[in-house]
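Open question from group meeting: does this chain pack into something compact, or does most of it stay loose? Before anyone orders reagents, we agreed to write out a predicted structure and look at it together. Recording both the input and the output here so the notebook holds the full record.
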Amino acid sequence: MNRSLSILAGILLSATLVGCSSSDEVDQMQQLTNKVDMLSDQVGALQSQQDQLAGAVNDARAASDAAYQEAMRANQRIDNIASSYRK
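Structure tokens returned:
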């Protein structure tokens, strides 16, 4: 993704050098460059947020597995107690 943005930024900068004959075109190119920079920042923030969420999911999965194993052990103990108890 960053490579694509770098290539796009290079193309935009090259286009600004070619189109220097009009100040309106330069202003438009500067606005587009600013928008690309803003989108790059947003993509970086989203990637960071995705990494945090993936970590939280992995932690929740580990906690769920541990709780499941503990429940299985508890059920086994209850089954052993019930089978050994006779009146």
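Observations to bring back to the group:
Residues 2-84 form one domain.
The radius of gyration is 29 Å.
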